[in-house]
Amino acid sequence: MNIVVCVKYVPDAQAERTFNASDNTTDRENVDGLLSELDEYAVEEALKIVEAGEGEVTVLTVGPDQAADAIKKALQMGADKGVHVSDPAIHGSDALATSLVLAEAIKKLGAESPVDLVVTGMASTDGTMGVVPTMLAERLGLPAVTFASELSVEGGAGGTATIRRDGDASTQTVTASLPALVSVTDQINEPRYPSFKGIMAAKKKPVESWALADLGLEASQVGLEAAWTKVESFDARPPRTQGEIVTDEGDGGTRLAEFLSARKFV
Q: Could you tell me the residue range of the domain that residue 9 belongs to?
């Protein structure tokens, strides 16, 4: 099977994250970044499918130069090769443009060897929108089988992909014919840690770098100017102030109720 996993390089949630003052986009250069945690589950699931049968896993990412670190981590986990789409014109792209770039990159990969399965995380840990997988499936003309907490693939290429989707009120079993796109949740598996052997092997694995021109796309189709949504303004979160201390002198409960009521908490 030929599996493509879409991953994203995101700012570390533990770092001091902010926006660029020049255009109100997320600052991705002056903050430590890493492979999105939710995408690690997608990489792990793809590796498990290939290890249970045969095939290869290609990791695809779109982003600045630092995004190569996301591919590096996936290769260390065991992916076979990577593709990094990087172009200054992509800066500021929204979900629509991102799905367009990913779709054209997957089509280019498919021209070399048909893609049987596209796997993504359920969302990125920075944007947390969760819409790119479905947009991507629509652009590729593939069935979208989303929010999988369990996945089984039968019949190899040309077979089927069956997922279990756990909702608040029910559990659904959904089956799609391959090729298909599947997005996975953080309940599906336990991502492996890169071994020393995997880290060393990753250094020899191929990584291709593509620009928009390689995908047949124009700069006007992506970027901040083409985005349907923009951040108009932003302000730093105010520092936390000391809370009010209430000494219980027999009326603590009443004073607490008054405090909550005044702030319309009750």
A: 2-226
